[in-house]
Design brief:
CATH superfamily of chain B: Winged helix-like DNA-binding domain superfamily/Winged helix DNA-binding domain
Distance between the termini of chain A: 62 Å
Oligomer: heterodimer
Helix content of chain B: 55-70%
Number of helices of chain B: 4
Helix content of chain A: over 70%
Number of helices of chain A: 8
Shape of chain A: globular
CATH topology of chain B: Arc Repressor Mutant, subunit A
Chain lengths: 232, 91
């Protein structure tokens, strides 16, 4: 059984733009994380890069799906396109988006556990996807699982901030918190269209915070280390 | 209590020690400069050679270490690496 969000008609198009923006920001984090992984060769940076790759791809799927529906809206309304096929396409898109998003969040949660054991990650993966597979309420469970993972990740960033007291970590904590609340909003969006809009606005705030912290990191990172001498 | 030195900083300290010794350093100097136990230092050196940050040179029975281009890159980009990993809680 699946539920589909009720999207307000005036919001069509804006959601596509916003989702593309989220994808670009997530892929930027993925790119820089991969770049730093290539220099440092630290495994957790590679996993972090994959996490944001999955998150970025999830938004590309969501945005593409909304674009297909938006660009064929007249045919759907006139009945030229079967409503049932639109329903199935939407459901498929939601599942694919959520699975990719969930994979990204699972990787983030795994990294935050600071255990270098692939079996622990496989266990997380099996528990998550078997719960999902056998549940009759797949959409609800998908969002519930990602909400739990976002809460877990938010808590991790809060504890990290309390140790390092960095502005960028605080921004990332708030970004995760906004994503957590937006996920709750998406659960409620199956009944009320306003929550779909609220969810997107909260996501926008979250990704602006991620982008802001990334820009600060890059700016500070370009300054020379205080003990560093120019080498070569 | 002093903050525990993280792994990335230890790597930086080792590479910096190699660099500061005109890119040719004996293990005893690394031990002194990096402030690690002998066993820990050996583990780090093995790791750094695996990552191709340093190379081992053996000449007339004496062992020394030198930086590779990857090692130089790490030194030059350390501030960025530290800032990114610190902010995203990846230490």
């Amino acid at each position: 059984m699946g539920n589909i969000f009720i999207t307000p008609q005036w919001f069509f198009g804006y959601d596509i733009l916003l989702e593309m923006m989220f994808a670009v920001i997530a892929l930027l984090v993925c790119f820089y994380s991969w770049k730093i992984y290539k220099i440092s060769q630290e495994n957790h940076l590679r996993l972090f890069s994959w996490a944001f790759l999955f998150i970025g791809l999830s938004y590309i799927v969501q945005s593409s799906l909304n674009f297909i529906i938006f660009s064929n809206l007249d045919d759907v309304v006139s009945g030229a396109i079967n409503l049932q096929s639109v329903y199935h396409l939407t459901l498929f898109g939601i599942y694919l988006h959520s699975i990719l998003f969930l994979l990204g969040l699972l990787l983030l949660a795994y990294i935050s556990l600071k255990i270098d054991n692939i079996r622990a990650f496989v266990l997380l993966l099996l528990l998550t996807f078997s719960t999902l597979y056998f549940s009759p309420y797949k959409t609800f469970i998908l969002y519930l699982l990602s909400t739990i993972l976002l809460l877990f990740t938010s808590y991790y960033y809060l504890t990290t901030y309390l140790v390092n007291r960095k502005l960028t970590t605080l921004m990332i904590f708030f970004a995760m918190l906004f994503l957590f609340v937006s996920n709750i909003s998406f659960i409620l969006a199956t009944d009320k269209s306003l929550y779909y809009v609220i969810g997107h606005i909260l996501e926008l705030v979250a990704y602006i915070l991620v982008l802001g912290s990334l820009l600060i990191i890059l700016k500070v990172g370009k300054q020379k280390h205080k003990n560093g001498k120019k080498t070569r | 209590m002093a903050k525990k030195r993280d792994r990335l900083k230890i790597i930086y300290d080792i590479l910096k020690a190699v660099h500061d010794k005109n890119n040719r350093i004996k293990p005893t100097h690394i031990l002194y400069k990096s402030n690690l136990s002998h066993q820990m230092m050996e583990e780090y050196l093995t790791d750094l050679m695996g990552k191709e940050f340093i190379i081992e040179n053996i000449a007339s029975g004496s062992k020394t270490y030198s930086l590779t281009q990857k090692g130089y890159d790490y030194l030059n980009k350390y501030k960025m690496i530290a800032e990114f990993t610190d902010s995203f809680g990846l230490e």
